[in-house]
């Protein structure tokens, strides 16, 4: 019996050791696999930011080469919709807004006369590839940081200022965080919305589109938060507003508040003014393409009057919550979102505050705008106002960006996408523009 007991104990001990070895081996494999996935995610995120960085650098060099701009609106798309509590259609909004901007049904001038064909008024660095990163397993915290990093990249390239196309309203938090961190202090926020979006954590999600302004106020990113157009607010929304000292202007009192709102003076003593427009601030008669339809909202002209009269240095902004899946067939809400974007930034920001200096040339600067690069098959006129220095800057920047795109393509060892092919064509056009201008300067 003793011998049998020893054998049994030995067998059990051997089995335990084998299990421990297997467990260690499995743990090592799992750790190695997790590490490999993390490294892959890091490469995807860095590649995404590199693309935006090079585009922002090129756009800024082009604007500086032309000269005369103190600040230029720079579009950045953030197609994020998964933090919506109802529908996720806002993820499809950025390209639809761009399409409305350049659709040709109207001219390229804003109400105050700013010309969108002038690259010093507006430029574009494309979209943050949100869905591609999510498909790689990148979680919300990392996504939010990546959005912030993209905004900082834009702000690092003078004279560009970020103008973000959402996406749901959760994107405002990382954008505003980036703006205030880059500027070194809080801003005043003018927020148009049917909802206060200030729940502590709606449905348990701290990054919910209904909780973004709670994160903004907790982080100390705003000195004043003015919310205009509110008409769907519960007890928590009011309590949170009182907690953070938010100035909530509800639609039921709009006739009383109109004069005050059309004469706002913001940003003094802080780093500037940030404007966030949730398209559902408008009555659905003006903008039916939203996820949360709330009757009794602002008219389009109400919003325009407030924006065009605000006094302050606009340092950035966003237009969010446009849902193309609920828009009319003719894209009515897309055009509204585009017009709000142009009014808010081009007229208030680039126009009255920054005063674009006119070129002393009869030639158009439109060859440097994304619209004409994409629509004219890479053809461009060459402006004669470039001096030799600016020509060399344009050539160097375009060549460096082209080399980066080609080297990234070689590392991937795969057929380039249409977007990459189009970028290569545009960079080649920029090189040609610079070379031909240099020849003209020398002749």
Report the major sheet. Answer: 8 strands, parallel
Give the fraction of residues assigned to helices: 40-55%
Spatial strand order of the main sheet: 2-1-3-8-7-4-5-6
Return the CATH architecture of the largest domain. Answer: 3-Layer(aba) Sandwich
In total, how many beta strands?
A: 8
Pfam family, one: Arginase
Keywords: Arginine metabolism, Hydrolase, Manganese, Metal-binding
Family: Belongs to the arginase family. Agmatinase subfamily.
Biased composition (Polar residues): 19-37
Outline:
It catalyses: L-arginine + H2O = urea + L-ornithine. This protein is 50% helix and 12% strand.
What are its keywords?
single chain, 443 residues, alpha/beta, Arginase, Chain A, 2 domains, eight-stranded parallel β-sheet, 13 helices, 50% helix
What does this structure look like?
The chain has 443 residues and is of the alpha/beta class. The chain folds into 2 domains: 285 residues, Ureohydrolase domain (Arginase, Chain A, 3-Layer(aba) Sandwich), CATH 3.40.800.10; 77 residues. It is built from 13 helices and 8 strands. An 8-stranded parallel beta sheet has the order 2-1-3-8-7-4-5-6, sandwiched between helices. Strand 7, helix 9 and strand 8 form a beta-alpha-beta unit. Helix 1 packs parallel to helix 4, helix 1 packs antiparallel against helix 12 and helix 12 runs antiparallel to helix 13. About 9% of the residues have low confidence.
């Amino acid at each position: 019996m003793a011998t049998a007991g020893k054998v049994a104990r030995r067998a059990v001990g051997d089995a335990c050791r084998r299990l421990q070895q297997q467990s260690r081996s499995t743990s090592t494999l799992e750790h190695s696999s997790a590490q490999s996935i993390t490294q892959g995610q890091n490469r995807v995120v860095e590649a995404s930011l590199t693309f935006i960085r090079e585009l922002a650098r090129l756009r800024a060099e082009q604007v500086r080469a032309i000269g005369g701009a103190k600040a230029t609106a720079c579009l950045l798309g953030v197609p994020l919709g998964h933090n919506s509590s109802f529908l996720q259609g806002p993820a499809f909004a950025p390209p639809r807004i761009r399409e409305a901007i350049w659709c040709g049904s109207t001219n390229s001038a804003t109400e105050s006369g700013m010309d969108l064909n002038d690259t010093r008024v507006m430029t574009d660095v494309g979209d943050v590839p949100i869905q591609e990163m999510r498909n790689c397993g990148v979680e919300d915290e990392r996504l939010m940081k990546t959005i912030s990093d993209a905004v900082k990249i834009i702000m690092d390239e003078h004279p560009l200022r970020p103008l973000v196309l959402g996406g749901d309203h959760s994107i405002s938090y990382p954008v505003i965080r980036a703006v205030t961190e880059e500027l070194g202090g809080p801003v005043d926020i003018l927020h148009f919305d049917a909802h206060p979006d200030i729940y502590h954590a709606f449905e348990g999600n701290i990054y919910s589109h209904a909780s973004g302004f709670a994160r903004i106020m907790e982080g100390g990113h705003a000195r004043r938060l003015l919310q205009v157009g509110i008409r769907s607010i519960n007890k928590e929304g009011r309590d949170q507003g009182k907690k953070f000292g938010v100035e909530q202007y509800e639609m039921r009192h709009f006739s009383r508040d109109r004069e005050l709102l059309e004469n706002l003076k913001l940003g003094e003593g802080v780093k500037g003014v940030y404007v966030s427009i949730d398209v559902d601030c408008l009555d659905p008669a003006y903008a039916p393409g939203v996820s949360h339809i709330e009757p009794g909202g602002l008219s389009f002209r109400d919003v325009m009057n407030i924006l065009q009269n605000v006094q302050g240095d606009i340092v950035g902004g966003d237009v969010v919550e446009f849902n193309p899946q609920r828009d009319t067939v003719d894209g009515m809400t897309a055009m509204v979102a585009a017009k709000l974007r142009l009014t808010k930034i081009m007229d208030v920001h680039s126009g009255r505050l920054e005063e674009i200096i006119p070129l002393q040339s009869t030639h158009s600067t439109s060859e440097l705008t994304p619209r004409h690069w994409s629509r004219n098959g890479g053809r461009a006129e060459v402006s004669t106002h470039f001096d030799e220095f600016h020509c060399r800057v344009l050539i160097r920047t375009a060549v460096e960006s082209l080399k980066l795109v080609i080297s990234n393509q070689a590392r991937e060892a795969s057929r380039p996408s249409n977007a990459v092919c189009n970028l290569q064509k545009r960079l080649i056009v920029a090189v040609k523009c610079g070379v031909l201008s240099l020849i003209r300067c020398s002749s």
